[in-house]
Amino acid sequence: MAAVGGTNVLEFRTEEDIRVHRLPISPRRKQELEAHLFLVFTGIKRRAQEIEARKVKGFRQNLGLLHRLREMVPHGAEILSSERSLEGFGRLLHEAWAAKKALEAGVSSDEIDRLYAMGLEAGAWGGKLLGAGGGGFLLFCAPPDVHARLAATFRGHHQISVKIDAPGVEVVFAQ
Fold it and tell me: N or C: which end of the chain has fewer CB within 10 A?
């Protein structure tokens, strides 16, 4: 998705047929979203492909969860492309994170759960671990006036400012 950039909805038709649909988000709404997102590195590194392989293996028994995750997509897209409060988006991220954790035990850990709970206690509406799970970055959605409290809560953890880049990754050749 870094190569595509922007804010998109992915439509998985088959393994080979994946469509990318850009969400119609105004520049003002994009700035508002960026101001509500808080990204922190958990300090935990993992082998993502192993976690993904176990999730894929369990897809048949997790069809209900997968359908629930898929049902969240239009709701999230509607919130982002409207003028509605981003609190609903934060709550939706929380619900999606709970479903993702239920897909495979290795997606989370006691330490990740502890860090996530700290973010909620600091005032985030919700969030999720990015990527396959097991470590990496936690993304929180919180009112901008809560970000100082989040920053203090996660002092000692690498914090990254979120910027949504519409063009995506660009290859630059130095001569």
Answer: C
List C-alpha distances in Å: 51 to 45, 91, 135, 151.
12, 25, 10, 29
> Which CATH number characterizes residue 86's domain?
3.30.70.890
pLDDT tens digit sequence for 54-101 = 666 767 787 888 889 899 999 999 999 999 999 999 999 999 999 988
Higher-confidence position of 9 and 87: 87
Burial of 14: CB neighbours in 10 Å, binned 0-12, 13-18, 19+: exposed
Q: Which residue carries 């998109």 as its tokens?
A: 8
Q: What is the pLDDT of residue 172?
A: 58
Q: What is the pLDDT of residues 166-175, one digit of tens each?
A: 666 665 555 5
Is the pLDDT at 127 greater than 90? The verdict is yes
State how far the Cα of 54 lies from the Cα of 67, in Å rounded to an integer: 18
Domain contains 43: yes
Query: Alpha helices, DSSP H only, in the chain?
Result: 27-36, 48-57, 63-80, 87-103, 110-121, 147-153
CB-based burial, 70-96: b 16+ in 10 Å, e otherwise: eeeeeebbebbbeeeebebbbebbbbb
Which of 79, 83, 156 lies closest to 125, judged by CA? 79
Number of domains the chain is built from:
1
